[in-house]
Amino acid sequence: MAAAMDWLPWSLLLFSLTCDTRAFYVPGVAPINFHQNDPVEIKAVKLTSSRTQLPYEYYSLPFCQPSKITYKAENLGEVLRGDRIVNTPFQVLMNSEKKCEVLCSQTNKPVTLTVEQSRLVAERITEDYYVHLIADNLPVATRLELYSNRDGDDKKKEKDVQFEHGYRLGFTDVNKIYLHNHLSFILYYHREDLEEDQEHTYRVVRFEVIPQSIRLEDIKADEKSSCTLPEGTNSSPQEIDPTKENQLYFTYSVHWEESDIKWASRWDTYLTMSDVQIHWFSIINSVVVVFFLSGILSMIIIRTLRKDIANYNKEDDIEDTMEESGWKLVHGDVFRPPQYPMILSSLLGSGIQLFCMILIVIFVAMLGMLSPSSRGALMTTACFLFMFMGVFGGFSAGRLYRTLKGHRWKKGAFCTATLYPGVVFGICFVLNCFIWGKHSSGAVPFPTMVALLCMWFGISLPLVYLGYYFGFRKQPYDNPVRTNQIPRQIPEQRWYMNRFVGILMAGILPFGAMFIELFFIFSAIWENQFYYLFGFLFLVFIILVVSCSQISIVMVYFQLCAEDYRWWWRNFLVSGGSAFYVLVYAIFYFVNKLDIVEFIPSLLYFGYTALMVLSFWLLTGTIGFYAAYMFVRKIYAAVKID
């Protein structure tokens, strides 16, 4: 979650990376070659809905089950995402057609759903749940054909083919609820070129489904579990009445087609669901705006500073210098330690930890090593990196704490290791209790929670202590001027120097540079979309770093010119002002884009949004603070102090 800017050589390099990222695969992710009639296993991942934000495992509904249910061993990221990958009874053979097959048929008898099961299925359908299956690690997709030329003749209409993830569990029509009980699987294979006298091998390159609702009376099943579907549109859909028992067949068919798509490009279908052009417009717009404003601001400040420093360094006109008002007059107080230096240094240490983690994750993902094909890899990598970056967070916090005349380094290290992670864990634990109450697969299991606690106290905390110890022992930052014993009186400030006004002014530029990319990130999180444009995200992250740094320098300069030397906390808060706009945008997105009406989904949305806003404030506040600190040290080192 971030945004920022870069120079021309980087832009050219990243342009090539963003163009090629879809076809890039990590060494070691090897394709699976199938021979004719080899079994292709269909697995279920979960059920999801953007209306409830509560994932459920596949067999939480009364689907047909295989003789033995086997769950896949999952990584940390998959568990946190709510994935529960499990085998299904679908029998699919490579390049072998099936016209119609009945699932869980006992001597030609239909499946009977109890009243309770019928009510649960009906509830899930009305909540717009999607079913997610995978074949050879490829997620199933439903083809949507949209016509772009609406005004022209039917013959001139152009089809715009799009895909949505998974398939709808069912649909409602005139207050009646219908279940998709027949699945038409369409799998595409790529035939590999081989030498003579070798058997052909195939690779799965696309997995589509056409869900249908066909009532019991229209499906003719025989004793061999084969069935016959009605021709054309003569059939009626399978209604689910939540007030009584329902009888139905679960059926499926399999169709294979040859494709020219190679295995390395097979994810393109899923990753080109959004228009890439808008990302380029966003990047170009952000780069132009930020460079233009940054250039103007830099020019004004540099020219003003040169003039200030020249005036302050004149020794022949001492009286005029004494009458000057401005930032030089607070030189004896500008490096006076603020209130609560331990908390400030702890928050900045966590900000450094976040910055290092996000930078590495985005860069590695940009190289294609955390593609969606590596299920859960992004979240797993982020969790472990945050733990291991504790040594850098501890080092920076320890050195800053010593610079601020702190002495209790052990307590400071514990505060750094537990303050931000403790807030995150506390909020997640409370939300997890509500998810547990809903029996959702999104609830983190107790063993996983214990494992996360062990990682926190067994990896992150010792590393923070280690970094803090060396940071505290290192020479503190060299401040160019001495601090007076008696604090200077601060004059009355103008209205525009108010802290909240500063947050509004400082936050608009970084947020404006990244809000389009924020829309795609929100869509990926809350609407079950794939996000993979990490090349763009890296550019936006650089833009964010540059804009936060520059706006922070401008704000601290104005504050010091107003003879207010209490800049430490104020600059940290103001530099994170774009987090306020992220919060406002999240509320706008909730009201206008999502169809969430229940209490628990709303609580989950705003709970996780609070974590995002807090993390974003820490990140941008830390970037702005260190930029302002370097700026303040630089300008006071340039003037002659008596």
From TrEMBL:
Belongs to the nonaspanin (TM9SF) (TC 9.A.2) family. The chain crosses the membrane at residues 280-302, 346-370, 376-401, 413-437, 449-472, 500-526, 532-560, 572-591, 603-632. Its main location: Golgi. Keywords: Golgi apparatus, Membrane, Signal, Transmembrane, Transmembrane helix. This is Transmembrane 9 superfamily member. It is a multi-pass membrane protein. The gene is TM9SF4. The keyword Protein biosynthesis does not apply. GO terms for cellular component: early endosome; Golgi apparatus; membrane. InterPro entries: EMP70. It comes from the Eukaryota.
